[in-house]
Design brief:
The chain is built from two helices and eleven strands. By secondary structure, it is of the alpha+beta class. It folds into two domains: about 60 residues, no CATH class; about 60 residues, no CATH class.
Length: about 140
Amino acid sequence: MTTAHDGDRTEIVEGVITNVTPSWDHERAAKLVRRQIEARVDDLGCVEGSGNLDLPGSANWYVPDIAVVPEDSKSSAETDRVVKRRRYAEYGAPLYLLVDRMEQSVTLFAEPGSLGYTKADGPHPFGTAVRLPEPFGIDLDTSGL
């Protein structure tokens, strides 16, 4: 039986750095709530997720179980395009899928090397099926992105 949890999170709450490791029961509960609010969130023109939540004007940095934010909320596009891509390759992540909402395109980076990814498939315009290699082995439908 596996007891490790890969979803470790670090938060800054009132100046205190805290590592949070939610239990699988906790994750299941969040998933059940997300399923039930999904349709309404879409109706509101929002998106739900569990990403980092930086509170402007505050020293706090939360990682909520579920956050609902407007679809047009600002993103760190330049960080995704350059910094994260380089770092993921540096740490050996075999694939990096960049969904670029500003350019309305999808690019799959593969074959990490010391200077970044050595192979790029794309950019493909939204609506193009993008093949994700094994272990996924699927054609990703990008029409709804």
